[in-house]
Amino acid sequence: MQHFTTTIPTMKELEEWMFRKMQDLFTAAMRTALEKLDEIILEQRDRERYRVKAERETSMNTVFGNIRFKRRLYMDRQTGKYVYLLDQHLRFEGRGKVSPHLLETAIAFAAEGPSYRDSARRLEQLLGYPVLSHEAIREKLIEQAEKPVKAVEKRKARVLFVEVDGLYTKLQRRKRQGMEHAIAVVHEGWEQVGKRVRLTNKQHYLHRSEGDFWEGFGDFLTEQYAIDEDTWLVVGGDGASWIGECESYFHKCIYMLDRFHVARDLKRFVGHLPKIWKDARQALARQDPAALMAAVERVAIEEIAPDKREAWSAYKSFLRRHRKHLEDYRKTLEANGIDTTGMRPMGSAEAQMRVLTKRTKRGGYSWSERGARAMLTTVMRSKQAGWLEEADEHKVETPERVFSVRKILKDAIRPAKGCVDGMIRLLRSQWQSRPTGLALKGLKGY
């Protein structure tokens, strides 16, 4: 190897150099493609409605770097407003200065956590240049979370499963130290995916208003599902009084105590009694309230730690009141002629809440009310059955002539070959109808 006169770069150096070259090629090709699309829109626009006002340059940060390109501003004669038709056709807010894909990546990093600052650092490390500050990412996340989502076609379901729980977050600079967010996870059942079981068509509801939770949730259900008097709701919760009110709001509703919370509380009281604890666990697994209560009643008060005896008496009363809510809901559905094949015991609420807790409580962070709701909304949307598209704020007519995106991209990366393959920019601007432009058009063919 000593006869080599050229220094061979390391794999890391070669990879970094190739990535920078790809960034340069991408930005050049993207600029050409965008300007070509703007020219096609210029040719195929409704000339009676849209008049060219000016051609302006803008810049946009992308996953491959910053791109500067020109696009035309039009005056809409119908509304009297000025619009960029390229932005509307691409469903992109050009004034945002950030490409949709880069924005989606930044928000996904922020939703994963652990912080907005970490998201900004990860973006810079990935792309090689500082893209967005942590505060800019926060503002973009809140802005996206507060945008309305596209209306979906209502789904039909005979039985809907609802897991409800509350999530407490600390607040910044408020008289209240924190707030509880009422959250519901709705799904249509379970499906086997390999060795794992997944909730079918999972949707989330975050209660935002000061009104009653179940009234707001009822409105959410009517927006998402075609429910009627034959639709059954199976609701799982931890026994909080506001969750138990579901039975008074819905005609056909089965309320179930979440077995995770029951097992956790029982272990706290009788975990030191092996026989009782074993019988209680087995009764919970069989969803046999009679056997569970029999095991609980066998516990003498002297067997409970002195500092827990008062709480144990209260918890036994709680279990007696909720005895029917420990019954297997499938028995009720079968008695009403519903096939329960494939239905599983309720109890995924805590697992769903852990996903949200991981982002909002890890690190001991405090939140503003608006920021906490936005983060919860973002995480929930990312875990739903497919991301919901944003509602269309404005619709425009698509060009009458279908064009090939592949051809545009091919032209964008093809090197220029001089004036033969070039164009006179005056003929692609608002000056094309002036005397000079008309004269040049008259020379066509010579």
From TrEMBL:
InterPro entries, A to Z: UPF0236
Family to which the UniProt record says this protein belongs: Belongs to the UPF0236 family.
Protein known as: Hypothetical conserved protein
Species this chain originates from: Thermobacillus xylanilyticus
Upper classification of the organism: Bacteria, Bacillati, Bacillota, Bacilli, Bacillales
